[in-house]
From TrEMBL:
<keyword id="KW-0442">Lipid degradation</keyword>
<feature type="active site" description="Charge relay system">
    <location>
        <position position="256"/>
    </location>
</feature>
<dbReference type="Pfam" id="PF03403">
    <property type="entry name" value="PAF-AH_p_II"/>
</dbReference>
<dbReference type="InterPro" id="IPR029058">
    <property type="entry name" value="AB_hydrolase_fold"/>
</dbReference>
<protein>
    <recommendedName>
        <fullName>1-alkyl-2-acetylglycerophosphocholine esterase</fullName>
        <ecNumber>3.1.1.47</ecNumber>
    </recommendedName>
</protein>
<dbReference type="InterPro" id="IPR016715">
    <property type="entry name" value="PAF_acetylhydro_eukaryote"/>
</dbReference>
<keyword id="KW-0378">Hydrolase</keyword>
<dbReference type="GO" id="GO:0016042">
    <property type="term" value="P:lipid catabolic process"/>
</dbReference>
<feature type="active site" description="Nucleophile">
    <location>
        <position position="233"/>
    </location>
</feature>
<dbReference type="GO" id="GO:0003847">
    <property type="term" value="F:1-alkyl-2-acetylglycerophosphocholine esterase activity"/>
</dbReference>
<keyword id="KW-0443">Lipid metabolism</keyword>
<feature type="active site" description="Charge relay system">
    <location>
        <position position="311"/>
    </location>
</feature>
Length: 387
C-alpha cells in the first residue's frame, strides 16, 4: 500500500499518511445515529478483511471542512479554503472504505477518541488506524460547536444541516464557555459507549448515512469490559473528564491535553489511570501541575514528553509537507513524524495492555511509560510554552 501523494499550490505539498504496522488490515466507515444535534457522528476504524482494490476514503470528506479550518485559524475563507482544498482535497487515507469487518469471538477492545478544538473526526486517522491495526475498534467522534465544522442529517430526506465552529462570545469568560463544552464532549463520549452497548445487545441502531456499513456487524466482536477513552488537546481534557462521568471507561490516554477547561474540583474525582503523552512545545507549568495532581494520587497515571514535537505533531497535519500549508498550521517539529507516531502509539498500546488486561505483546514498549527511550523523557522538560 503506497499512500496517495497530492500536488498543491505553494510548494509541493503532499500528504502521505502511514499504513498501520499491526497485523490487521484496517477498515473505515462513518456512522451517524439520530437526526438531531443530540445524535452521534463518528468515524470507525476497525480490523477488516483485506480486499484488493478497496476504495480509500477522502481525508477531508467535504469542502465545508476547509472553510471551517479557515475560520478556526482566523484566515480568510476566500483564499484559505480553496488553497486547502487544492493542496489536500484529493488526499486519501490508506484504509479500506466500508471494508468487511473481521469478526472476533474474544471481542476487540474499544477506544472512544475525542478530537481537539477546531478539528474533526478525520484529522487523527494516522493514530486511529495504527491502533485499529493492532486489534482495536476505534470510534473517532465529531463534536458539535467545538469542531471547525460538522453537520447532522435532518429527518426529512436526510438533508445535511451544517453547524459552524463557535468561538467564545464577546464578553464571556473563556473558562466558562470551554468548561460547558468539555462537559458536553464528555457526555458525547459516554453516549458513544451506550451506542456500542446497544449494538452488542442486539438493538437495531440504524446508520442515518445509509452507507454500506451496518453497525450490527460489530455485534459479538467488541469486548465492552475493555474500553478506554482517548483524545488530543481539548479531547485530552475530554478524556480525563469522561473517566469521572463513566465507570465503563477503564483508563484514558491524553495526547497533549489542554487542561484549562477542567474545573479544579474535578481532580480528586478522577478514579482511573491516565497516560499523558505531551509534546515539547505546548504545555505550560500550570498545565503540567494539574497533570501532576493526578499522578500524585494514582501511581499508574504517567506523564511523558516527546522531544522535538509540537502540538500538531499528534495530528495528521504533521505528515503534510509544503511550505505554505506549514506556515498556516505550524505543524512540524524537528522529530520525524513517523517516529513521533511510533512513540505515541507504542506508549498508548503498552498502557492499554496494562489497564485493559489485554493478552498481547505490547508490554515490550513498557519503557516508554517511564519516559525511557530515544526522543522521550519522563514528565515535562522545562521550556517556555507558546500558549
Amino acid at each position: 500500500l503506497t499512500p496517495r501523494l497530492c500536488g498543491s499550490m505553494g510548494g509541493a505539498a503532499s500528504l502521505a499518511l502511514p499504513v498501520g504496522k499491526g497485523p490487521h488490515g484496517v477498515g473505515c466507515a462513518d456512522a451517524m445515529v439520530g437526526h438531531a444535534r443530540q445524535g452521534l457522528f463518528l468515524r470507525l476504524f476497525y480490523p477488516c478483511v483485506p480486499r484488493a482494490g478497496a476504495e480509500r476514503p477522502l481525508w477531508i470528506p467535504r469542502y465545508q471542512y476547509c472553510g471551517g479550518l479557515a475560520d478556526f485559524t482566523q484566515r480568510s475563507r476566500r483564499w484559505c479554503a480553496p488553497l486547502l482544498s487544492v493542496a489536500v482535497g484529493s488526499c486519501r487515507v490508506p484504509v479500506s472504505w466500508n471494508g468487511p469487518f473481521k469478526p472476533c469471538s474474544r471481542g476487540y477492545p474499544l477506544i472512544i477518541f475525542s478530537h481537539g478544538l477546531g478539528a474533526f473526526r478525520t484529522l487523527y486517522s494516522s493514530v486511529c488506524s495504527e491502533l485499529a491495526s493492532w486489534g482495536f475498534v476505534v470510534a473517532a467522534l465529531e463534536h458539535d460547536h467545538s469542531a471547525s465544522a460538522t453537520y447532522f442529517c435532518t429527518a426529512d430526506a436526510g438533508r445535511e444541516e451544517w453547524i459552524p465552529y463557535h468561538p467564545v462570545p464577546p464578553g464571556q469568560k473563556e473558562f466558562h464557555f470551554r468548561n460547558k463544552q468539555v462537559h458536553q464532549r464528555a457526555e458525547e463520549c459516554v453516549r458513544a459507549l451506550r451506542l456500542f452497548e446497544d449494538v452488542s445487545s442486539g438493538k437495531s441502531v440504524p446508520n442515518v448515512l445509509q452507507q454500506d456499513f451496518d453497525l450490527s456487524e460489530l455485534k459479538g466482536s467488541v469486548d465492552l469490559t475493555k474500553v478506554a477513552v482517548m483524545g488530543h488537546s481539548f479531547g485530552g481534557a475530554t478524556a480525563v473528564l469522561a473517566l469521572v462521568k463513566e465507570p465503563g471507561f477503564s483508563c484514558a490516554v491524553a495526547l497533549d491535553a489542554w487542561m484549562f477547561p477542567l474545573e479544579n474540583a474535578l481532580y480528586p474525582e478522577v478514579p482511573k489511570p491516565v497516560l499523558f503523552i505531551n509534546t515539547e512545545k505546548f504545555q505550560t507549568p500550570e498545565s503540567i501541575a494539574k497533570m501532576k495532581r493526578l499522578s500524585s494520587r494514582n501511581s499508574q497515571t504517567k506523564i511523558i514528553t516527546i522531544l522535538g514535537s509540537v502540538h500538531q505533531s499528534q495530528t495528521d497535519f504533521t505528515f503534510l509537507t509544503g511550505k505554505l500549508i506549514n506556515r498556516i498550521f505550524s505543524m512540524r517539529g524537528t522529530l520525524d513524524p513517523y517516529k513521533g507516531l511510533d512513540i505515541t502509539s507504542r506508549a498508548a498500546l503498552a498502557f492499554l495492555q496494562r489497564h485493559l488486561n489485554l493478552e498481547a505483546e505490547f508490554h515490550q514498549w513498557d519503557n516508554l511509560l517511564e519516559g525511557i527511550g530515544d526522543s522521550v523523557v519522563p514528565e515535562a522538560p522545562f521550556c517556555r510554552s507558546n500558549l
